[in-house]
Amino acid sequence: MPLKTKLTELLGIEHPIILAPMGGVSGGALAASVTRAGGFGLIGAGYGDPAWIEHEFAAAGNTPVGIGFITWSLAKQPQLLDLALARKPRTVMLSFGDAEPFARKVKDSGAILICQIQNVKDAKTVARLGADIVVAQGTEAGGHGAGRATFTLVPAVVDAVSPVPVVAAGGIADGRGLAASLMLGAVGALIGTRFSASQESLTHPNLKKRIVESDGDSTTRTKVFDTVRGYTWPHPYDGRAIRNDFLERWNGNDAGLQATMATEGPRYKDAAAQGDTNTMVMFAGENIDLIHDLPPAADIVARISKDAETLLSRPPGLR
C-alpha cells in the first residue's frame, strides 16, 4: 500500500522520497527521473554556475523539478535565485546558511520553500521564516553537514517545529531508512548518496565504482577537499568523503596544505579531472555499506518505497 504522508500531499507525489540537490551530481536528467518515478527531484546548484543551472533545467524538460542552493554561496550571487525562479521550479531548497534574505522571494514566487538544517535551533529559525518543509540532516550524510546524528536529530526537530513537516536526511539508502524516518516522525526522506550511485547521476564513473566497493567505515568528515578547491565553508560545516591518499596525507593539517597550494592546487585539479580516486574528493555517506549496484534512479525509488511499505506492515524486529 503506497505511503501517503504530508510530503506526498504537499508535492503531489506518490512516494515520500526527495533527491538531495548534490552539487555537480544531481543534474536535470537525474532530477527528472526521480520525479517521473513518483518521488521528487532537485537539481543541485552547487557553487553557482549560471550556464550549468540553465543547462540542467533544460535537461529536465517539462518534468516538474526543484533546485537546491548552498545558501552562503547564493548570498554572493543572489541573481542566481532570480535565474532559477524564472524557470518556475516547484520547490527551492536552501541549505548551509542564513535563509532569511531569500525565503520571502521564494515563497512569493509560488515555489515551495525547503530549508535544510543540522540542529534544533536552526530548525526553529527556518520555521519562523515560513519554511514549508524542514529537512533535518544528520552527520551520517555524504558531502557537507555538521555534527548531530539523524536518529536523534529528526524526532527533536519534529517536536520543535510541528506542524511544519520534517524530512529526514543523512545515511538513508534503502527501505529500512525510509521506514525508520517515518517512525521517527518525519514525513519522508531526502536521499543523496544512493542516487549518486545511479545511472543518471553526474558522478564520475570512478567514484560510482568506489561507492559500490567501499563501506561506511572508510568515510570520514574533513575540510581537506574544501581547502584544496579554494572553498571557505563557514563553521560548523565540513564534508563526509571516502578516505584516499590525498585525504590521509593532509587531514588535520589545513595550515600545511594552504602553505603548499601553489603546487598542491594544480596537482589536485589535474588529478580530479582525470578521475584519480587516490586524489579527488569522493563525497559519500556512511550508508555506502548498503549500496551494491548502479541501477536507474527509477529502480531506486521503487525499491526503497516498496521495501519501506513491507517493513512498516510487518516490522522485522517483532515476533
Quick rundown:
By secondary structure, the protein is an alpha/beta fold. Helices cover about 45% and strands about 15% of the residues. It has two domains: about 5-205 and about 290-315, Aldolase class I (TIM Barrel); about 215-275, no CATH class.
Provide key terms for this protein.
single chain, 319 residues, alpha/beta, TIM Barrel, 2 domains, eight-stranded parallel β-sheet, three-stranded antiparallel β-sheet, 16 helices, globular
Description:
- The two termini are 22 Å apart.
- Helix 2 packs parallel to helix 3 (50-60), helix 7 runs parallel beside helix 8 and helix 9 (175-183) packs across helix 16 (297-313).
- Strand 4 (91-95), helix 6 and strand 5 form a beta-alpha-beta unit.
- The chain has two domains: 6-203 and 290-313, Alpha-Beta Barrel (TIM Barrel), CATH 3.20.20; 215-273, no CATH class.
- Helix content is 43%, strand content 14%.
- The strands form two sheets. An eight-stranded parallel sheet has the order 1-9-8-6-5-4-3-2. It has a three-stranded antiparallel sheet with strand order 7-11-10.
- The chain has 16 helices and eleven strands.
- The protein is an alpha/beta fold.
